[in-house]
Inverse folding.
């Protein structure tokens, strides 16, 4: 489980295809603190550390299901990936509950700078049956974009906006997002549970 408070933007140094799997090697400042089998969020996707191929670098593996559902299959060497280690049980929940299970991708349709901050608009495909299960955004609710915990503004049927403060802009890969960029989104787990419970109530 994660909080959506990104620690840094790691750099992709190698990509190796192995059948339906993709081995992703990254360089980041806390590599020496990691261990094999540890979970790390990558653009919001929970992946397991499998090896340390060189000093300062670690490798994770994404299966085909993950590649189909996220933007990890679009990565290229040199890209920045938002990374966060799993949340400590005794720590503060500074963001919101993030599972690291990306629901789908969204596409950036607009970027505006306003008084030093940046407003991003993202659109996504909406399936009615999934919307009924809580796979939607709500005004002032929480959403995870590329692993970053954010507050929704201007929530629409198939789009939403988020505001990015200068610190987040500089320390995550949001500074690389432009119109047309594909991002990972995870909808709020609490909303999903509430929608599921309401579905059971209606069936009674």
């Amino acid at each position: 489980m994660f909080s959506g408070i990104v620690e840094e933007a790691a750099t992709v140094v190698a990509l190796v295809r192995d059948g339906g799997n993709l081995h992703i090697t990254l360089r980041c400042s806390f590599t020496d603190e990691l261990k094999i089998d540890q979970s790390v969020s990558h653009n919001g996707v929970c992946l397991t550390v499998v090896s340390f191929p060189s000093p300062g670098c670690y490798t994770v593996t994404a299966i085909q299901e993950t590649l189909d559902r996220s933007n990890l299959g679009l990565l290229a060497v040199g890209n920045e990936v938002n990374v966060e280690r799993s949340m400590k049980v005794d720590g503060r929940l500074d963001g919101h509950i993030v599972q690291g299970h990306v629901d789908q991708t969204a596409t950036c349709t607009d970027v505006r700078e306003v008084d030093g901050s940046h407003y991003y608009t993202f659109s996504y495909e909406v399936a009615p049956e999934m919307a009924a299960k809580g796979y939607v955004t709500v005004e002032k609710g929480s959403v995870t974009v590329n692993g970053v915990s954010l507050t929704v503004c201007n929530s629409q049927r198939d789009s939403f906006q988020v505001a990015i403060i200068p610190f987040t802009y500089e320390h995550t890969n949001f500074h690389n997002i432009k119109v047309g960029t594909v991002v990972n989104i995870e909808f709020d787990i609490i909303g999903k549970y509430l929608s599921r419970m309401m579905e059971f109530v209606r069936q009674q």
